[in-house]
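Incident review: delayed structure delivery

Summary: a single-chain prediction request sat in the queue longer than the usual turnaround. Root cause was a stuck worker, restarted by the on-call engineer. No data loss occurred. The affected request and its eventual output are reproduced below so the record is complete for anyone auditing the incident later.

Affected input:
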Amino acid sequence: MTSTNFRLEEIYSHNVNEDIKLVENNVVINLEGSKIAGNAKISLKILPNPKTIIEIYPDTFSMNYEPGRKISVEFKKLKLTLEVRITGFRAGKEIKVKAITPYEIFIGDPKDKVEKIILHLFNFPKLSGVDGVYIEENQKRYLKGLISIQTAGWDIIINEVKNLKDRIDTLRSTGGYSISHILEISKINSKSFTYTNAKDLIRSLSRYFSFCRGFFTAPILSVGFDKNDKKVFERWIKEPIDSWRDNFSWFDSEHGNLLREVFPGYLKLWKNKLWSDSITHAIYWYVLSNSMTAIEPPIILAQTALELLSWTYIVKDKKYLSKDGYKKVSASDRISLLCSYLNIPLEIDEELKDLTKLAKGFNWNGPKAITEIRNFIVHPEKEGTPISKQKLPLQDVWKLSLWYLELVLLHLFKHSGVYSNRLTSNKFVGQVEKVPWAK
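Output delivered after worker restart:
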């Protein structure tokens, strides 16, 4: 960070697909009751997918450095002890042991007070159409970040890395991973807080950015600072992050302020005990459905997510139907009821020409078309099926099921602005429209 210009910058810098060294220090290795001195380095290994690894360089040789064996590594200066599993061993001029780290590595005390937490987001697109976040100092204005999301007492500032355009150009050519944005979490009232206080918020951000991006991403590599900008803690975790690709989702990067508009409603529902699990699972299935190369499994997953949201909304939340009453309703009618309550159109968009043609022959609406074709995928041998697999407009059904899922979630998050409609043909970046219930 550069305090002279107040710009929010990354703590850990790297080039596209380049590993990030997190810490290197002297260690004591506890192996079969023996203590061996050495040196160890923890890194975020980027390829083939981001994960934390530890490379250990013992001072003395042992026959017990065999893969699969668990050992304890103590970083005394950091007051950190890790239980790791050996994955590789090399002996030569230097001894090198590779090992798998735990899911979470936390240096410091999660209950120590901080003024802010910095996180690093991977593989998010360049944002336009944002207001900017400015700092006033000595009658001058300094740009700190792109967006400020203020909700539930928190202030989340988002900024991009300086060379993001070049990084994205490289990612489009090679695929892979790069830090794209930096997040700063603080309290709106500037009060101090702990990691424990912010833990749920950070968890919610991983699902939220994945929902926006349409594939798995997450803000990781957390660093907490006190009011004097002194480092209080570091936290490194293993979160699913997908390799870069350009793909469709409801979020349009030319309308970056959508991040700020949708998040408060999302967070409120995510924190609701009645809804939390359903939202978490639905977004997970949405991202999987939007990411797979095969077309049949995403249709099945999307319908599963829609039925889960329908159950939660109609039975558990609004209590429009009893459990027994809901069980008597067909899958297509469950989704139709949900969409009707949320003012989402049931008719099939004419942009989906092949599906529209097929559906007219059977008098199907959108939910009926999804469930019928899903049933045919799962039970192709069922007698009396009126269609053949060769005639299935799977691409159209996939688009329609994800369109319904996106709109249901956006309505549940109380969004009444614009979105990117995946059903629109020859859509360009920046092309958005009002959500159906706000037209």
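Verification: The longest helix spans residues 296-317.
Action items: add queue-age alerting; document worker restart procedure.
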